[in-house]
């Protein structure tokens, strides 16, 4: 038997999934190595059991061999024929799943300055996967690719033009998640899938996307994945004047500012309690309440922005950890949007029903599955390579 494998590399974790390599890949095992560093942990769901293991010191490069040895008993001598990698930044060159040849790897290295907090980790994982699985087809799938067709007003910043030409653009992120949700909409709700959709991916990272006829029109993330909505620990939209103040008046270094806007802001920064929405919902602390209010207000505002870029809205879709599970957040976002035709049934909302809207705009809760998009790309590339 042959297998396909997906690797989704974050700054402190590597998620993986193993599929039986059929034309329609069949899910088999998934897991992750979290807390990469001195005391990494393996979590894995196999067909027979849940595995939890302390791994000790593991970095991104050594994560792949560690995953391989955890999977070895299940591979039983079978081969991994294709590996799909989630890559955050495809710059202006990569709009399609792409085989990760040495030339492509060189080009992806050039993009490190555009995504210094993500790209190097992805590249380290890919190099390790090439060593562990030298015969497998290695395919890169890009988070920016889904947003590649944006028009100039949704692609540029109003700074001197030469920066745009140099690549300072609103690339947009979470594209694999939006792509997965669009696929799911086509499978389950074909009558609305090609209309004007606003998709809210609300997880640890959070962003929104306006989709028309299956194509991304606008995204709330921009040059980096820190722009747009407030997130667990990222600040979202921030007046550039605040950055200048932090540098010039507070004398903070770029590294200190990076730590603030990526790791100490968002829900964590506002509440001073936690980046996890569940903790804030359980708390009576006024700062926790204000953090949730800010989060929902900015999300509500973004829905209206997305609706404006689509010249209307036919469906609003909630996804990811907060979007799929928090009735409170969905309610606080939707309740003031009745003027747009967005109203929800509170009973259905409370039980996370698949469809919760009651007004002219349909409102859905859809689980995202980035791995599904990646493995489909691997299966396609693999079957093409078999023909040629
Ligand atoms: P990631 O972006 O890391 O993939 P997830 O999509 O898993 O994140 O979302 C994680 C977040 O989802 C958690 O930080 C938590 O705040 C939120 N979450 C999960 N379950 C619930 C719930 N029942 N109620 C509110 N928030 C939840």
TrEMBL record:
The gene is ackA_2. Substrate binds at residue 86. Mg(2+). Can also accept Mn(2+). It catalyses: acetate + ATP = acetyl phosphate + ADP. Its cofactor is Mg(2+); Mn(2+). The keyword ATP-binding applies. ATP binds at residues 15, 201-205, 276-278, 321-325. The keyword Transferase applies. This is Acetate kinase. Keywords: ATP-binding, Cytoplasm, Kinase, Magnesium, Metal-binding, Nucleotide-binding, Transferase. It comes from the Bacteria. Its EC number is 2.7.2.1. Belongs to the acetokinase family. Mg(2+) binds at residues 8, 370. Homodimer. It is found in: Cytoplasm. It comes from Pseudovibrio axinellae. The record marks 174, 234 as: Transition state stabilizer. Catalyzes the formation of acetyl phosphate from acetate and ATP. Can also catalyze the reverse reaction.
């Amino acid at each position: 038997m042959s297998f396909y494998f997906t690797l989704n590399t974050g700054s402190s974790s590597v998620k993986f999934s193993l599929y039986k390599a059929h034309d329609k890949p069949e899910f088999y095992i998934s897991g992750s190595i979290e807390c990469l560093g001195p005391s990494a942990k393996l979590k894995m769901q196999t067909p027979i059991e849940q595995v939890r293991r302390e791994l000790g010191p593991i970095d991104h490069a050594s994560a792949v061999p560690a995953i391989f040895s955890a999977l070895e008993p299940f591979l039983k001598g079978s081969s991994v024929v294709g590996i799909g990698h989630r890559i955050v930044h495809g710059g202006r060159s990569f709009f399609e799943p792409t085989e990760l040849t040495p030339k492509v790897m060189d080009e992806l290295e050039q993009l490190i300055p555009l995504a210094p907090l993500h790209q190097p980790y992805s590249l380290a994982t890919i190099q390790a996967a090439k060593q562990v699985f030298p015969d497998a087809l290695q395919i890169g799938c890009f988070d920016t690719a889904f947003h590649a067709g944006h028009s100039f007003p949704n692609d540029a910043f109003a700074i001197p033009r030469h920066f745009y030409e140099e690549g300072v653009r609103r690339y947009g992120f979470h594209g694999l998640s939006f792509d997965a949700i669009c696929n799911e909409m086509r499978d389950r709700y074909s009558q609305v899938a090609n209309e004007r959709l606003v998709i809210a991916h609300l997880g640890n990272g959070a962003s929104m996307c306006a989709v028309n006829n299956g194509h991304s029109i606008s995204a709330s993330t921009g040059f980096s994945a820190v722009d747009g909505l407030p997130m667990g620990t990222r600040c979202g939209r921030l007046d550039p004047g605040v950055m200048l103040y932090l540098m010039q008046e507070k004398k903070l270094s770029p590294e200190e500012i990076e730590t603030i806007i990526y790791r100490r802001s968002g829900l964590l920064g506002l509440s001073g309690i936690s980046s996890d929405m569940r903790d804030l919902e359980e708390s009576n602390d006024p700062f926790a309440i204000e953090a949730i209010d800010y989060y929902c207000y900015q999300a509500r505002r973004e829905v209206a922005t997305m609706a404006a870029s689509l010249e209307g809205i036919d469906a609003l879709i909630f996804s990811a950890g907060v979007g799929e599970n928090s009735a409170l957040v969905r309610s606080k976002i939707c309740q003031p949007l009745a003027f747009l035709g967005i109203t929800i049934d509170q009973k259905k909302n409370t039980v996370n029903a698949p469809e919760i809207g009651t007004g002219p705009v349909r409102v859905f809760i859809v689980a995202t599955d980035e791995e599904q998009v990646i493995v489909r790309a691997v299966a396609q590339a693999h079957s093409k390579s078999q023909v040629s």
